[in-house]
Please model this.
Amino acid sequence: MGYQILAVDDEKEIIKLLKLYLERDELTLYEAYNGKEALAVLEEKQIDLLIVDIMMPEISGFELIKRVRKNSNIPIMVISACVESSDRIFGLELGADDYIVKPFDPLEVVARAKALLRRFNTLGSNKETALSQILVGELKLDTYACTVQNDGGEIIELSAVEFRVLKLLMENPGRVFTREQIFEHGWKDEIVSDNSIRVMMSKLREKIGAEKIKTIRGLGYRLEKSHEGS
Model:
């Protein structure tokens, strides 16, 4: 298949068992033993499926899912000893696609992993990719690949915050968003100053063209539908 899977668990025996069964099906497995290590692997490798435990040092599984979902829609499977329905519901609401309780049957994990990969790379890559293009004027934003292009097809390099804010504006051209709404969408739970928002918006306007985003004094910002005016 050629798929690459990242398994994150602080129990080495669990990782060893998953590796044994997954690699029998020609699925490449990368290992991490806490959430911090997992984020480093995700930065370096093209991961197709994340398998994550909940109770881990450094960064918990719930927090890891939350962070991954800010920038990626890869399939996520939870394998955890947390058996409460509230834990399962919370994990799924955060963005997990499947939840398996320990102890588990490794053959079931393999079957579910293959099902998630198959569904994501057929329905996901065709239907979702077709719906992932947002076009406003000469700008094209791809929510699947997390890229933004100008009319010449050149990729515009944006930070994660800039991308999230531009996505919000492009999904709602002509609508005014307050600084508070932009903060909530761009920075999530981080704490930043009003000046940080102004600086980010200034950089974003510089990158995509100052005339595209209009400052509405005393209210906020909007993306111009026709890109006319400043």
In short: The longest helix spans residues 106-130. The first strand starts at residue 4 and ends at 8. The chain has two domains: 4-129, 133-223. Residues 89 and 113 are 19 Å apart (CA to CA).
